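Thread title: Can someone regenerate the structure for this chain?

I was given the following input by a collaborator and told the matching structure tokens would be attached. They weren't. Posting the sequence so someone can regenerate them.
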Amino acid sequence: MKLKDKEKEPGISLTCKSPRLLDLVEKRTLMKLLTAFSNATGMRANIVDITGKSIFGNTDVQENCRFCQLIWQYQHGVERCQSAYARAGEESAKYGEPYIFRCPAGLIEWAAPIIIENEYLGSIICGQVLMWEPEEFFWVELQTMNKCLGIEMDSLMDAAKELEIVSGKKVHAAAELLFVTANYIMKAGWQSVCHQKEIARQQAMLADEISAKKQLEAQLNVVSTTNLDSCLKKERELISQVKLGDKDAAGKILGSLLVDIFVVGIGNLPLIKARIIELMVALSRSAVESGADLQEALDINANLVEFIVRSEITEDLALLALQGLQQYMDCQIKTIHIKNHHVINKVKQYIRDNIFLNLSLEHIARSVYLNPSYLSKLFKENQGITIMDYVTRVRIEEAKKLLANSKYSIDQVSTKLGFTDPSYFAKVFKRCEDISPREFRQRI
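Best answer:
Regenerated them for you:
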């Protein structure tokens, strides 16, 4: 609704060059939202950029009513509609609310702004309706407003008679619904911006680490000695963190692993691609083993492999690997259907941070101020395993790290992780890993 006597909202840029909306939100998502809106209201909707032009191609945009199709047969008709959309979108962005307006051809339409990170990127335009039964004055006005196009007026008036007449109440309700839709798009766009910034940050860290490693090797006048065993160890740690659902730890390990891969593979792009594809396959398998949907994981893997094969730039390969990790872990979390995400994650984090203590269900429950039986039920419903099963899983992952260090005996590893009986530790380890602790140590 048009608002007067309000100041422009501070901090919102209306003129700067912004990223394209389609770079932040998938076209499929936007089209799905518009289709749902149109099905719910029976009205057409489109998304335009700051110049009033549709962000979609001709095959994707919703079809205009016959009245607008006649107007858009003329270049001047297209230009003045786009100009009106641009002005309406700017007005809606100024006030942060839906803006109802009358288009140059005489129809009622409204705009809802799309603002992401304080930048106005465009608006959703809806309408192509009338708000009252046409009277004699309307037909005279219609001819006056469109005379400049040289259009055949009888055809235009026949098309106007087909337009839906919508009450003011319904127009305002549809405008509010449109605004809710725009807010959903803004939220999705903001999440995309945050994700892209994090990817950029991680890429910068990777570049710094690679540069530092090269400089050190140059100063010492040695060739990189990064070996397969080191990479395999980090890969095992990465898979372990994916299974435990620790995104931060997994991201750090993947970053370190990528540095090793890029340094060893300097000048050998096919080798780098092969190693990253191997990593993505391993991550896909780990995500599925932790509850991710198999088909979704396969689809993610297929898309990643396609992009990796086509990529010719090292930085792009790093980006794809980091995005792949994010997608696999998101897929894993989404499939688990966590009802109380915050509590479950807090419990898991507490267990990981205190794994060397003698943890009990009561001890863990106190950390989140919940009744042990209720927490036990909540955890099992959301994770598919009991809390103590999860404790055992984390202990085994820690045990694998300790077993890789020859300074610890197997009995010391058992005691350090709270197993009072080394033989019981060996039994639990073999049940989880299909090999004994001694065989595991020999293998690595």
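The longest strand covers residues 119-129.
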